[in-house]
Amino acid sequence: QVQLVESGGGLVQPGGSLRLSCAASGFTFSTYAMSWYRQAPGKEREWVATVGSTGSSGGTKGYANSVKGRFTISRDNAKNMVYLQMNGLKADDTAVYYCRGSSSWGQGTQVTVSS
Q: How far apart are CA 51 and CA 35, in angstroms?
């Protein structure tokens, strides 16, 4: 079955960086777009970034306006991994970050930005 496992979250100071990872299994990874979402306390889950499949979409990347220029999504099809490099973190980035692919969700990883 489809499995998505996130890692890399933690506590970081404002302005710091974190790299989230998502290990995927149970589906043909390279043929699916992969996305990151986040959910802050008391708020709805929101889209953060997507990287297209490396087929027809050529791995096209898209970002929410709130993270554009600070976050970078990437994928490694050889390892069935998707990453989210987060730089210039702000308190507003505090949330549980979820990986999504093949209509499935991971369990999430907590990111807390605080001094």
A: 6
